[in-house]
């Protein structure tokens, strides 16, 4: 899979490139900028040198001026470099600086805005099905996820199991983000039951035997490490009473399944359904970012229980998308979309299901989910058939 074409495009000028570990940021940059001057802040010696003297960046740039492009990998490891990068950008307008990061925590504290808007922010996501082409298999992808580090491994299942351990060891533990790693490990298991679900912080706190504030801080850590995302309820021009809590998704369905404890009492259908919804979610996120679409992802749920899994809304349109794991579309599967359509007739609607044919049922476009995933790409609209 090392020769797969990524949809992520080069950006002009200076930019931050964020994305969870293993999504292929460094690989892509080495391919696109083979002659760039490189500072790898995962290297402990290099990290120590720049931590002790961030001003050494001036000497490094001066010694490599002919390379024109400077990549600082995992900038969050030495956020003190940000002011120095800002100085170099101001002093050398014809140079390009690319800063990668797999955690936003330290950068938020240091202030990414120190670059004064001189660098745009881009994100790299796990593989999309259309990037993998005929190597994409739905069942395998639901099990292993789409993280390039995992899918390109000779032992993908083993790599997936160790993936979160890598984060705990290299980010949470090393940086002292939590007092007790055992408490955080229990939280990680508990929070998997909230994947693709409305988030109930109080319930998670009770299950973990801790406080709401602690759970909230742990969720923020997951967000800062780019492992999890919260999406809000869509309430614009609301005509019905809506719930107020956000939904939570892990950034990759394989990571979710690797973390999710399973036993005789756990429903395979429930886990599979949440994994399927998560796979759609990560594709929608990637499509929006790679297409640079002016859209945000929401969900919709009324107090009465009508729900739409994903609402995409912004200057580039309005879409309502429901995900069902059944192989046939039942009348009750359409209830949420039809209710949403009554309130928002301008929204384009679609139901994704495990069947084999595109059908129109009661005015709702129903698309086989595998077809949807394989066709969605930045070059075409989200519901285009071609």
Provide a quick synopsis of the model.
The chain has about 375 residues and is of the alpha/beta class.
What would the average pLDDT be, to the nearest integer? 90
| C-alpha Rg (nearest Å) | 22 Å
Q: Characterize the biggest β-sheet.
A: 6 strands, mixed
Q: How are the strands ordered across the major sheet?
A: 9-10-11-12-14-13
**Count of DSSP-assigned helices:** 16
From the N-terminal CA to the C-terminal CA, the straight-line distance is: 25 Å
Order of helices and strands: EHEHHEHEHEHHHHHEHHEEHHEEEHEEEH
How many domain regions?
2
- What proportion of the residues form beta strands (DSSP E)? 15-25%
Q: What is the number of E strands? A: 14
Tell me the overall shape.
globular
Uncertain parts = none
Strand-pairing-aware structural class: alpha/beta
Helix fraction bin: 25-40%
SSE diagram, text form:
Elements (H helix, E strand, L loop, with lengths): L14 E4 L6 H8 L4 E4 L3 H9 L3 H8 L5 E5 L7 H11 L4 E6 L3 H6 L9 E4 L5 H4 L5 H7 L3 H4 L4 H18 L7 H11 L5 E2 L2 H8 L3 H13 L3 E4 L15 E4 L2 H7 L8 H24 L4 E6 L5 E8 L2 E7 L11 H9 L4 E6 L5 E3 L2 E5 H7 L11
Helix pairs in contact: 7-13, 9-13, 10-11, 11-12, 13-14
């Amino acid at each position: 899979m090392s020769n797969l074409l990524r949809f992520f495009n080069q950006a002009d000028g200076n930019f931050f490139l964020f994305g969870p570990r293993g999504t292929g940021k460094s690989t892509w940059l080495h391919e696109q900028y083979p002659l760039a001057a490189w500072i790898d802040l995962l290297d402990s010696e290099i990290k120590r040198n720049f931590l002790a003297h961030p001003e050494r960046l001036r000497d490094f740039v001066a010694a490599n001026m002919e390379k024109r492009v400077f990549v600082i990998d995992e900038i969050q490891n030495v956020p003190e470099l940000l002011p120095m990068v800002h100085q170099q950008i101001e002093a050398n307008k014809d140079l390009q600086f690319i800063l990668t990061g797999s955690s936003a925590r330290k950068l938020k504290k240091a202030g990414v805005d120190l670059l004064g808007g001189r660098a745009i922010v881009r994100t790299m996501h796990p593989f999309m099905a259309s990037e993998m082409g005929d190597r994409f298999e739905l069942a395998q992808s639901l099990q292993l996820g789409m993280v390039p580090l995992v899918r390109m491994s000779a032992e993908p299942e083993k790599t997936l199991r160790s993936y979160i351990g890598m984060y705990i060891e290299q980010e949470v533990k090393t940086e002292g983000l939590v007092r007790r790693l055992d408490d955080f490990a229990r939280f990680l298991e508990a929070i998997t039951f909230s994947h693709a679900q409305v988030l109930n912080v109080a319930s998670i706190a009770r299950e973990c035997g801790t406080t709401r504030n602690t759970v909230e801080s742990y969720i923020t850590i997951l967000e800062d490490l780019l492992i999890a995302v919260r999406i809000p309820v869509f309430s614009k021009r609301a005509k019905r009473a809506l719930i107020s809590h956000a939904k939570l998704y892990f950034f990759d369905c394989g990571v979710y399944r690797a973390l999710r404890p399973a036993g005789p009492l756990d429903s395979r259908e429930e886990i599979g359904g949440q994994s399927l919804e998560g796979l759609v979610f990560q594709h929608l996120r990637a499509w929006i970012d790679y297409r640079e679409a002016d859209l945000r992802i929401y969900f919709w749920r009324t107090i009465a229980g009508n729900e739409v899994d994903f609402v995409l809304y912004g200057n580039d349109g309005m879409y309502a998308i429901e995900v069902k794991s059944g192989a046939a579309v039942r009348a009750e599967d359409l209830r949420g979309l039809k209710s949403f359509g009554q309130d928002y007739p301008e929204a384009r609607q679609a139901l994704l299901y495990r069947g084999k044919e595109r059908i129109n049922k009661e005015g709702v476009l129903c698309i086989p989910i595998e077809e949807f995933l394989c066709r969605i790409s930045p070059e075409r609209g989200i519901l285009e058939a071609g």
